[in-house]
Amino acid sequence: MEPLALERLLIGFSGLTWQRLVMMGVGGILIWLAIKREYEPLLLLPIGVGCILANIPGTGMLEEGGLLKVLYDAGIENELFPSLVFVGIGAMTDFGPLLENPKYVLLGAAAQFGIFGTLLIATLLKFDINQAASIGIIGAADGPTSIFVASVLAPDLVGPITVAAYSYMSLVPIIQPPVMKLLTTRKERLIRMPYTLRPVSRATRILFPIVVTLCCSLIAPKAAALIGMLMFGNLVREAGVVERINQAAQNEIANIVTTFLGITIGSTMVADRFLRWQTILIIVMGLVAFVLDTAAGVLFGKLMSLLSGGKVNPLLGGCGISAFPMSARVVQKIGHDEDYGNFLLMHAMASNTSGQIASVVAGGVVLALLA
Amino acid sequence: MEPLALERLLIGFSGLTWQRLVMMGVGGILIWLAIKREYEPLLLLPIGVGCILANIPGTGMLEEGGLLKVLYDAGIENELFPSLVFVGIGAMTDFGPLLENPKYVLLGAAAQFGIFGTLLIATLLKFDINQAASIGIIGAADGPTSIFVASVLAPDLVGPITVAAYSYMSLVPIIQPPVMKLLTTRKERLIRMPYTLRPVSRATRILFPIVVTLCCSLIAPKAAALIGMLMFGNLVREAGVVERINQAAQNEIANIVTTFLGITIGSTMVADRFLRWQTILIIVMGLVAFVLDTAAGVLFGKLMSLLSGGKVNPLLGGCGISAFPMSARVVQKIGHDEDYGNFLLMHAMASNTSGQIASVVAGGVVLALLA
Amino acid sequence: MEPLALERLLIGFSGLTWQRLVMMGVGGILIWLAIKREYEPLLLLPIGVGCILANIPGTGMLEEGGLLKVLYDAGIENELFPSLVFVGIGAMTDFGPLLENPKYVLLGAAAQFGIFGTLLIATLLKFDINQAASIGIIGAADGPTSIFVASVLAPDLVGPITVAAYSYMSLVPIIQPPVMKLLTTRKERLIRMPYTLRPVSRATRILFPIVVTLCCSLIAPKAAALIGMLMFGNLVREAGVVERINQAAQNEIANIVTTFLGITIGSTMVADRFLRWQTILIIVMGLVAFVLDTAAGVLFGKLMSLLSGGKVNPLLGGCGISAFPMSARVVQKIGHDEDYGNFLLMHAMASNTSGQIASVVAGGVVLALLA
Amino acid sequence: MVLENFRRGLEVTGLGMGLVFLTLVVIMLAIYLLNRILRDRSAEWAAPLVDAAGATEEAVPTSADEVAAIAVAIALQKQQEQEGGDYDEEVVGEVVMVASIEPGTGAWRGHGRLRAMQ
Amino acid sequence: MVLENFRRGLEVTGLGMGLVFLTLVVIMLAIYLLNRILRDRSAEWAAPLVDAAGATEEAVPTSADEVAAIAVAIALQKQQEQEGGDYDEEVVGEVVMVASIEPGTGAWRGHGRLRAMQ
Amino acid sequence: MVLENFRRGLEVTGLGMGLVFLTLVVIMLAIYLLNRILRDRSAEWAAPLVDAAGATEEAVPTSADEVAAIAVAIALQKQQEQEGGDYDEEVVGEVVMVASIEPGTGAWRGHGRLRAMQ
Lengths: 371, 371, 371, 118, 118, 118
Ligand code: NA
Ligand code: NA
Ligand code: NA
Known about the structure:
Chain A is mainly alpha-helical.
């Protein structure tokens, strides 16, 4: 055996820097969060595994022809995986509450301010504009949108951004309530909103995804892939005649893609790209983004409350983000805790689903302005 | 913001020509046909969505790295999707009736005349030979075969050809009856064909797909991919020992591929390729192809009826096309309407399944002669 | 029609050499073994179909853009398919018995000697070192590992090696017993091993796949893709919080990949590569590898028995290969036949699952030393 | 550079929030419009009927009820056989599993699927 | 050019229809042959037995039997209800299909699957 | 050449078997270690609870029981109502399909899934 071969044989140990060990630890923590704390386990567990695998030296898995590189090229580079995940999300989302109360659409728009506010702060922290926008997009509170935008504007930051996005989405029940309570008076939180079921025609449900696709895509063409797939999924759900596609979208496609999405994102978290001060800043900025989202939403809710003569509970603004249905439930709980007779859930659902759409639009707009 | 960015921002509107609007309308009509009329919804709905998305300006989805281009390269360019769909079709098709009555195989051959008759007419309408053949292949009455052949011989025409093929397959119950009735006498339609169950051995069922693969592939090697996958699916069905593959072929693979097949085909329907007189000619020629299929089949049925001394009902010839099981049911209905005691279904099934095989052979032969 | 076209038309027959006919016969035999004898039908049936299709002349399916080439490039060339199959295997494997009796891990190591013993013999038969190693890897008794290693070291031999590996895995109940009986005394076979259930904590079950990934990948980095995916599957199984991925791994992904894996491997069995004396030698060497595996395992078992003061039944060594659970059952049966009160199954399971891990490690080590 | 980026960021923020609001206002108006226009015509888009092949992809409630009923009967009988013995969760588990019967490969159902793919 | 294309088209039509008929005639003859040769030997290709792993991909007989039994019971009851109505082959066929109950994720079944993939 | 290959093979065998044993010995020690450390702490890693969305991926026994009970009630009522009524062929067909009860596409379950993917 030549020395060369022996050296190659020991690459696993000789290449094992402390940075790589730290990253394996990070992967382990993500797996722990996924299993023990159940923070978005479907994403964080594969991300953790991908992170560990990517930081083992000498595997060749990140090189041309290696497994993780093959998966990355197949699904992240060309943004196939995030788009396909959106087909599944669309097929699983019922936009009924939004169709019954279209005015809450505006709350979803307001809550996207977290994206831009964070972008501004990030530029002050010496990130360049594209990086800053990618960090801001954590405020979309939406995994696929974050991956989609970051992989175009700042491919090096996809790992931390995605991890931050999914982690804070899990933490919505912890992050949002204090912000909501701080910005509302008890009187505001006590506003009751009676819910009357307004029947939405099947035609409306079917036309809705098509109309949304057209509106969003014409104004923000770069959002077309994401919004198009999200709405394709929803059309498939509402059409009622393509149950095979509906099931495939919700199950086969969603499950397979989710599996590989996580591993592949995790594989971008290699030591020399992840272990920087930047990463810690990104994690902090992500929290800022979620807080700004909530604050902007609630403040806009207060404005709507004012304009409507006190008929809108400002809490609804706080759930105009994409983290569905956690955020809607947070609002329901806060309202319910203050007053046992207050049921905000259906209104909150409307606001929350509008956040789904708004976050994709915001992502597309950011891409259009910067890509 | 530089003017450039602003201009880019408005690309959604500035690029919105009337042609693109018309195409979005076409996409909308396809979706309407799919949902309201239930014309092949599993295909026409995704095609409609793909058509709309492809005609929104500035999305980049059709450019290198864009979602629709990625899907096209992954599945249409290399003909992967049509081949995989055939695995599913093979796994879902019971060739039992054909194995019990092998003579009906000939009816499937005769009904392919629509392909060639239409090809001849198309050459007279100034289509070049490859385009004419691609148009003729609508007469295969078979979506994957049409996509397979057209994507080789005339990639620009894949969109209209596929849409025509699927649309007319949905319209079989409307297109075929008048042709059948016109070409047969009441006396012929009254011919009863008693059906006696002849047991087909398991060995025959298992060897059948292998034998068909060999026969077709040796005579028409270009058909090997399609016929090979169709018969692989059927072997998987009949083998009985690979239930996991059987289920995967009928469900996971079929559903996933169908979803993407439609969107991708729809994405080829961009305004400047679709909005031509050619397209209207193709739509018309498609109808001609289906009519010629039916006519040739029925006429050959009359010949068989004559040679058999009136034991064969000529209607059976009409269902020698690939549109299964709609065409067989049309024949059953016409026979049954004339005479309540006349049950042609099992014989019609034999003819219809032979049309499945014959259409693929015809596609392969056309490719061999012209590709 | 020009002569050229006519010639091309007859390519199916003019190109039909006797070698191709023989290969089609081989494909037929594989299908027969799959259906009639139920030898690994999920693999051998598609392999047989792939073999037949690959040997039909003039189909273009093996050329750039052809179906079989597309599948090969998509899954074998980059080793995606074997890796994905391992996710499924990991999700289906319960390593509980091994965790209860860690000492049996060593039996899995010993039984890998078949790989290296066969490698040595193969070099004497004039195979070069890479080919010899690929042939030896049949002794891993593990399909994906064989494909993974052979496709790197000797791509030309992937076909026969894979077929040999899967065939002998089916024949484990026939190959192993005589070797086991020959190398053990009746007294040894009568050794009873009481089984006491030792509870394994959930934390251990969850940490086990991570620890195994790290140990194996650091010592044999080239094994990281396989062991990483195997253990990812197992982590998904044990985590309990990602049931969607668990189901996808065991069903959707496993079924789809298995379908294409077989066809693609079969398509490498073209006449000019397969019909050589080498192939027969490979088939024979494969048998030698399985025999050496068993022998080395049993002999090591005798050593453990000796060292433990006769508390270990040496038969357990024989099932330290990857063929799970057939090999464990063989041991249980032999022990049970000698003494109706002897139940070795749970111990045999531990040995057998350790063989799963050891075979992957051996594959990675071979790659590290030679690739 | 930082200030330049910040200035650019302000532009992006202004334009961005503007476009997001614009898009969602348009969507809001579109929904109001759809709701107004289509309220009366909902009957026209009736629920999809059983398709021509006589096969639906959805579950058929009636039959499910029957099987479920049978399952309960089995479970009860087993319980009796055991004479109040160790009637554990397992049995219940099996009752649950009855639900995962695959609808089979019935010919017409297959055709329904098939038709959709040709 | 049009005429040249038409001439070419005629060639393609002649050769094409010829080859299609040729292929299908060969297939027809092959089926006749298969039917003749294999009629008597069908027993040889018996249905697949439970595999060596003790696991089949198909239903688990016991539970299937139970369900099948129940299905028969239902069918018989229905027959009685219909008072000698047209109780045809179809019913039997459907009873058989009940067997496609998924056996769950029992360990041995897992092994059966597993074995097939290694 | 053959001898050179054989010599190389011997090296590969020596190093190879050595590394395989090394790896598995390390794994063995790791398992012993894990078993020792984690024996007492197993309670800490409790089984996953129903997730925040109130949805589990596994079957929910309770609801199955309830559904089964309801099904029996329905079935009994149907029997009474019909009293030899027009029980047609279709019903038999549905017995087969029974099985396709999906554990539910209930809204909350969907949300449980959804949440995991955003
Ligand atoms: Na979202
Ligand atoms: Na067809
Ligand atoms: Na293995």
